[in-house]
Task: structure prediction
Amino acid sequence: MACDSTGNPLVKNNKVRIKYNLDQDYEYWIAPKSLRPEQEAVASADRNKKKADTTSPKHLPADLPKNCICIYTDGASSGNPGPSGIGVVLIYKENRREISEYIGEATNNIAELTAIHRALSVLKRQDLPVRIFTDSEYAVGLLSQDWKPRANKTLVHDIRGLMSRFDDLKLIKVRGHGGIKENEVADFLAVSAVKQKGQKQ
Result:
């Protein structure tokens, strides 16, 4: 956690910068209320025993199906619309895949939807249960609550078509920057895609 000279959290735009491991490249911005006391930390040796349990259990439903594929998606837009990217983290047992892609000029809502579309398009098995975690209320509403799209109709139609191929698929709304590790990774991947494109121009 980034601290000032007195050891207190450095807060910027109501967020605190943290790393889960000082040696990693990823940095996360979370709400100060999501910080936990150091004595609650889990040693890495103990954490690795939990295999696919890659986020804190308190953030995930207790009734995840057996053999569930967990997917975390996020979209980022520098401007709305503006240069945009997607981030996807797919986890199945000990297997993990991360996707970071620049998608061109788009709105943030398009980026959020495109991340979900990309995640579903790379899955090779439709018989396994799938849970998609997203912080986009817009995406959850359109794809699981029968909201009628006023824009992005073709993209929404395509995603619904992909979703219909799966035997057991649910979207789960999570709180953005709420300390959920893989959700923060998806955000990092999306933002990185936009930044890397900008550096190449």
Observations:
- Residues 42-58 have pLDDT under 50 and may be disordered.
